[in-house]
Amino acid sequence: MSIYFNRELSWLRFNARVLQEASDKTVPLIERLRFLGIFSNNLDEFFKVRYATIQRIQRAGKNATKSLGGISAEDLLLEINKMVIVDQARSFEVLAELEEELKEERIIIVDEQEVLEEHEDFIRNYFNEKISPAIGTIMINDEVEFPNLRDGYGYLAIRMVMNNNSIKYALIEKPKYLARFVVLPQIEGDDRQYIILLDDLVRHRMHYIFNIFDYKEIEAHMIKVTLDAELDMELDLKKSLLEKIRRSVHDRKDGDPVRFVFDKNIHEDTLSLIMNKLQIDNNDSIIPGGRYHNRRDYLKFPSLGRTDLLYEKLPALPIKDVAIRGSLLERIAKKDILQYTPYHTFSNTIKFLREAALDPNVKTIKITIYRLAEVSQIAGSLINAVKNGKEVTVSIELQARFDEQANINYAELMQEEGINMIFGVPGLKVHCKACCITREEKGKIVRYGFISTGNFNEATAGIYTDYTLFTANRKILKEVERVFEFFEVNYRQHRYKHLLVSPNYLRNGIERLVRREIAFAKAGKPAKIRAKINSFSDFKMIDLFYEASNAGVKIELIIRGICCLVPGVKGMSENIKVISIVDRFLEHPRVYRFYNDGKNDLYISSADFMSRNLDSRVEIACPIYDEDIKAEIIQTMDICWSDNVKAREVCAQQLNNYVVNDEEPVRSQYATYKFYKNQITN
């Protein structure tokens, strides 16, 4: 057995946990369909990024066995394909189960053969008004150049047998913006609700699309390609980073195919023709699938007014002793505040920036941005601030994966409004989440700010769990200012006594804290580390944790996704236990807790234990000095660790077994919500 799990295979095990949620009958039915959509969307992104990377390594003739955790690139591609085919097959089984359960709930999904007469007029009008103007139909022959298939679009491959027995082929392209699920009108006297998928609605109207052809048979099967999403950056020094990334995002649509998914019932001649046209070879992932692809669209499965088939609403809570009205800055001046979304409302972040924008004593605002909401109150507040005479500086990461275009658009908008824009640091992604403002008080400059584990994004704040610390601690905020100074003058090295900042100090800082626990263990004192992160894949850090385990340090890790560390192996990692929690909210915070002989050093961070976070990004790990907040975070981490409903044990065999014990059932996300609700009601 290798001493490391492979990163890609570990990620696939995480996505299998997402699929477990889709098959969990305790999860509301429509939410299970949406988990199926998350599973599919995750898989699409995996192939665009990770599979494409391994494929490039293999095509370059590199083995890369060491960096891949003990497996060659060629063998890894084969292993990935085997696992994906198994998981895809299971996902089709889950979908079939869900459709049967929908029928029991009087929700009927009909195909093109099952359309009722009462729905014919609606479908004809809907097709003519909504679909026909949007879809593209391309004949496939030697006279017409085969089109570049778009990443993630669904295509129907058409095969027509003419009355003279000749064969014609075509493609129908369905744009992403068309609603995948068409809710059909209620029929009087029938309590059932009917839905037809866009694919089948198009199939139902194919006679209209191809009525100029004299065919005797016609069939349509779905295909989909996933393209390499790597950005190929130009080397032209005359062009700005903004221009280069805009061009790279534009060129992404011409990326090489890395995965081809097709309906396994497609005619072999049609399949052969399309694969030849696409120049797909054995190094690409070729996945036989079912009748429908792009199951990520189940993320938007209509609610149909069925609140009984959705999660119960958990309204975001106010923070204890933080008033809705009045000055938030005055409250922060007295004491640090912890916001834990989505249990707490994200409105405090917006309130902070709105107040800073209007307060005549606020002079400067500096903030990092990685991903913004589609309609962002954060951006609106910053623009409002500059209009009110504040000096506003925004460091925006233009290479935030799959959000590049949105960030480019916001960057141009803010730049036009007079905001000082910093487009990252050469060779480094800016992934830290921080804000610092200066305010004049009694002739002196006072700093206020916040540091978060997650993005300043109203949309994701409702579904991602993240900590945000609001503070006026001058020692912390002075060092946050130094991070912004580094953005503007990259060659100058700053020293930090409080923050752990990558790429220069975070790795060393964590290693120092781990080695201190090792020293305590060797001295016969209690030694313990508990961390909550998204991924753990850095081999050097894993080796250090193995060393700590062998020294007797008790290590407890809550890791949502990738875990290359192999826990529970005698003589290597027997003192390390790992769990993963997948539930209605996406577990997103990074927290590091070091026992420190009972003193408990605690950090919140934007950084996972991955090489990219430790060495190739600008990240911040912020110490928690307020003892009340420290105790609060420790309590919420204790709740997570005690989860025995949605926690899976990450073991040497990667089995995804649920944690089972004799304790009272604890579903940590609901228990955390109850914890905060009790704070404001008691």
Automatic annotation (TrEMBL):
It holds the Pfam family PP_kinase. An intermediate of this reaction is the autophosphorylated ppk in which a phosphate is covalently linked to a histidine residue through a N-P bond. It is an enzyme of class 2 (transferase). Its EC number is 2.7.4.1. One of its GO terms (biological process) is polyphosphate biosynthetic process. ATP binds at residues 42, 464, 560, 588. It comes from the Bacteria. The active site is at residue 431. GO terms for molecular function: ATP binding; metal ion binding; polyphosphate kinase activity. InterPro entries: PP_kinase (IPR003414), PP_kinase_C_1 (IPR041108), PP_kinase_middle (IPR024953), PP_kinase_middle_dom_sf (IPR036830), PPK_C_dom2 (IPR025200), PPK_N_dom (IPR025198), PPK_N_dom_sf (IPR036832). GO terms for cellular component: polyphosphate kinase complex. PANTHER family: POLYPHOSPHATE KINASE. This is Polyphosphate kinase. It comes from Nonlabens dokdonensis (strain DSM 17205 / KCTC 12402 / DSW-6). The gene is ppk1.
